[in-house]
Amino acid sequence: MNWHIHVGKPFGGQGVGAECGAMAGSPPVGGHCDPTFACGLATDEVGACDVIGRSVVEGEFVYPCSPEEYEKNPYVCEVVDCSGKFGALKFKIDKHNKNIAKVVASDVDEYGPQLKLIEDRAITFHCGSLCGTLSTGTHK
Description:
By secondary structure, this protein is of the alpha+beta class. Helix content is 15%, strand content 12%. The chain has helices at 46-51, 67-72, 82-86, 115-118, and strands at 2-5, 92-93, 101-102, 122-126, 130-133. The longest helix has 6 residues, at 46-51. InterPro entries: SOD-like_Cu/Zn_dom_sf (IPR036423).
């Protein structure tokens, strides 16, 4: 699944399964959190991207983010474009309980946001569109 973090959070701070369209929520989920102006197609920084010549209008700027490009230059990706940086997440379904899926991520993102800056924002997993609120902490 592709995954990234938006500037807002799901309506009412709902957990997984909340509506996560850009205009949903209070405040709205909005676009991708993009404080370094990498300017992907779903950036929340459309105005700033236009000013610096990285218009997200189709054909004017090509967002170069991929795991290979991120390894060469960490500023080619939106700070929270996790699948762009590392690839899609792969979930493993629990063989005893099909309602449980686990993912283990072990990479450290030296250029990613501090967890306290993204807590309570909407994290979106694209398989259709599954949204929830990001919380910090360790779960076993």
